[in-house]
Specification:
- Helices cover 21% and strands 26% of the residues.
- It has 447 residues and is of the alpha/beta class.
- The protein has four domains: 1-44 and 366-447, Beta-clip (Beta Barrel), CATH 2.40.340.10; 49-62 and 220-361, Molybdenum Cofactor Biosythetic Enzyme, Chain A (3-Layer(aba) Sandwich); 73-91 and 188-217, Molybdopterin biosynthesis moea protein, domain 2; 100-179, Molybdopterin biosynthesis moeA protein, domain 3 (Beta Complex), CATH 2.170.190.
- The strands form seven sheets. Strands 1, 21, 24, 25, 26, 27 and 28 form a seven-stranded mixed sheet that branches.
- α2 (53-66) packs parallel to α7 and α5 (271-280) crosses α6 (300-306).
- The radius of gyration is 30 Å and the shape is elongated.
- Residues 1-43 and 439-447 have low confidence and may be disordered.
Length: 447
């Protein structure tokens, strides 16, 4: 039996015990069953300590900080999306840089009615001629305001009489619909602070402020190594072979966490190939899938010993995903070993990869986010449990299909609920880990 099979069996046993007891979950004093390996849960192997979930995340952050701050790089705006500003974004000019019209209509001077002069004022043209008192000129949105303009009369608020005189159908106030120079910012104003993540809107603001390039923290480089001879890259599962779910999923997830994915390599269960890949990789983070337990083809631990890596986290008290690990390779590179089961691998991403990449990428920590659960959530007697949920009416609704090998639940989820040992009762607040692409408004829910 593999470690992954063992974890699934253990969860099933735990839930069966829960269902035979009163209350929504294990009590804090419930006796845990022996682990499927035959070793009591409370007794770990000599010299080995499974890390509590919160401590594992903190260790991943500290590991990233110990790698040191990397030098900023200058990139074109088109290459900056998702990176973090390495210095404040400061206005290079006034915005707007000249007085402009906020609406299509007429630029008018003085009180009406006005004589409309020939020729309109269009955006992108040089400064137009001065308006005389009682004059009006047709004007387009974004065009420069003629000197001595009193206001902009919107096209829907004006009419011309038979003699060609312009009349306002509504009161015209001085300065109406004129975007004054420097209305948004003045040259030298700080627009955004250092550490701001670059979104599409930030790119637009930088361009409007006159930037062609920006200084950013370089994205951490990540390489994904897919382990396992049983994995197929196409077609239906057959003859004991299964489709690889992590190869298609992990690169996009790592990019959402701020990484630049440099390679995805399939190594099977080849210990020498894994050794060579780790020995030659220059990535800041190597992510492996499977092989983190102690089975006959689980080569991650022996290979880390072989290259002299330092194990920082070797197993985490979290379900699913407890066989995950974090290692330091050399002075500044790291490896996150994910379990092979898909949802267990997601747990490893949130536990170890997310805090590590967040610090390396210079991103700010997310604000703590908690909601009450709509119904009881079964817990593990000793370990943290991560459960896919959907947010509905300010409640976290647990989703079905949340076994270690299942992605169906999290595919419909907006977050993972951090369920403490012993479980959570209806209405109890739980911490939520937001998925990188989710919104609180998702309303899909399996019941």
């Amino acid at each position: 039996m593999t470690a992954q099979d063992a974890e699934e069996l253990y969860v099933e046993e735990a839930l069966a015990l829960v269902n035979n007891r009163p209350g929504p979950a294990f009590s804090a004093t419930a006796q845990a069953p022996a682990s499927v390996s035959g070793t009591p849960h409370a007794a770990e192997a000599p010299g080995h300590r499974t890390t509590p979930w919160p401590e594992a995340r903190a260790l991943a952050e500290r590991a990233a900080r110990s790698a040191g701050r990397r030098a900023p790089v200058t990139v074109a705006l088109g290459d900056a999306l998702g990176a973090v500003l390495a210095e404040p974004l400061t206005a290079l000019t006034d915005l707007p840089s000249f007085d402009t019209s906020a609406m299509d209509g007429w630029a008018v001077a003085g009180p009406g009615p006005w004589t409309v002069r020939d020729g309109g004022v269009l955006a992108g043209h040089a400064e137009p001629d001065r308006l005389g008192d009682g004059e009006a000129a047709p004007i387009a949105t974004g065009a420069r305001i003629p000197p001595d303009t009193t206001a902009i009369l919107r096209s829907e608020h004006g009419r011309t009489d038979a003699g060609g005189r312009l009349h306002a159908t509504r009161e015209v106030n001085h300065g109406q619909d004129i975007r004054s120079r420097g209305q948004e910012c003045r040259d030298g104003d700080q627009l955004l602070p250092l550490g701001t993540r670059i979104t599409p809107v930030v790119l637009g603001l930088a361009a409007a402020a006159g930037y062609d390039t920006v200084s950013v923290l370089p994205r951490p480089r990540a390489e994904v190594l897919i382990l396992g001879d049983e994995l197929l890259t196409e077609g239906l599962p057959h003859d004991g072979l299964i489709r690889d779910a992590l190869g298609p999923m992990l690169p996009s997830w790592l990019r959402a966490l701020g990484a630049e994915v440099t390679a995805v390599r399939r190594l099977g269960d080849d210990a020498d190939a894994l050794h060579e890949a780790l020995r030659t990789s220059s990535a800041d983070l190597v992510v492996t899938t499977g092989g983190t337990a102690a089975g006959p083809v689980d080569h991650v631990h022996p290979t880390l010993d072989r290259i002299g890596a330092e194990l920082l986290v070797d197993g985490v008290k979290v379900r699913p995903g407890h066989p995950m690990l974090l290692a330091r390779i050399g002075e500044s590179r790291h490896l996150v070993g994910l379990p092979g089961n898909p949802l267990a691998a997601v747990s490893g991403l949130f536990t170890l990869a997310e805090p590590l990449l967040r610090i390396l990428a210079g991103r700010a920590a997310p604000e703590p986010y908690a909601l009450p659960v709509r119904e009881a959530v079964h817990g593990h007697p000793y370990d943290t449990r991560l459960v896919p949920v959907v947010v509905r009416a300010d409640r976290a609704v647990p989703l079905r299909y949340n076994g270690p090998a299942m992605l169906r639940g999290i595919a419909a989820a907006s977050a993972l609920a951090v369920v403490p040992p012993g479980g959570a009762r209806p209405g109890e607040n739980v911490e939520l880990l937001q998925l990188p692409w989710s919104t609180a408004g998702i309303q899909v829910c399996f019941t």
